[in-house]
Amino acid sequence: MVLSGGEYSAYLVGMNALKDLLNFWQSGQPSTVINRRAAYGAQSLTTVRDLLAKCPDEIPSPGTTELSFIGDADLRDNIRNDISAANRGLVDGLWKAATVLAGAAGEALLLWAIIERKSTSDIEKARIAVIPSAPKDPNSWVLDGYIKVAKALGLIEDETAKQADLAREFRNLIHPGRSARLAKKCDRGTALSALAAVELIVRDLS
């Protein structure tokens, strides 16, 4: 809930009014009386709906890594939500979800860092050096390109690049054909590996 104190109080009042209205309907009161109460119930329902509309559909768990170095609040929250969901997937045994979401978060972080922290000319030099066949626009690259360019630009350490590359291989298992060809599947190990890569990327970018 991201409501102010007054808004939260109004939310509780509205919810209690709706509960009371249900009990009132079941009491067998005359229709004229019920109609008057129903009008108040409709007002309470509108209040509750408007207040809930202010709340995000999802929010990262309190223990999720902070990304205070990202100035864009929407982007920061989206990446934190992915990291939070990946951690929940790990706890719940949803290995593929944890692996893929952690990989997506790492990819988003590397793309942000490359574009935000380096000049266009530096990015182009690094691209030509490590992924010459890739398009010029960083938004069109894949995770492998982000890892190589980020390492070449000094944005991440060698160990981070190695861990991220390992996580990239696991993340690609989302494609059924690749998973079948390699006779591999996501498990607790792949989830832990992908989450470790994200944490190392955050450490380096911080």
Helix and strand layout, with pairings?
Elements: H1 5-25, H2 31-53, H3 73-92, H4 95-117, H5 120-130, H6 143-152, H7 158-171, H8 176-182, H9 188-205
Structure characterization notes:
The protein has 206 residues and is mostly helical. It folds into 2 domains: 5-53; 73-205, Four Helix Bundle (Hemerythrin (Met), subunit A), CATH 1.20.120. The protein contains 9 helices and no strands. It has helices spanning 5-25, 31-53, 73-92, 95-117, 120-130, 143-152, 158-171, 176-182, 188-205. Helix 4 (95-117) crosses helix 7 and helix 6 packs antiparallel against helix 7 (158-171). The protein is elongated. Mean pLDDT is 87; it is low at 179-183.
Order of helices and strands: HHHHHHHHH
Radius of gyration: 24 Å
Distance between the amino and carboxyl termini: 28 Å
CATH architecture of the largest domain: Up-down Bundle
What is the percent of helical residues? Answer: over 70%
Total strands: 0
CATH top-level class of the largest domain: Mainly Alpha
Envelope shape:
elongated
Query: Which sheet architecture does the biggest sheet show?
Result: none
Structural class category: mainly alpha
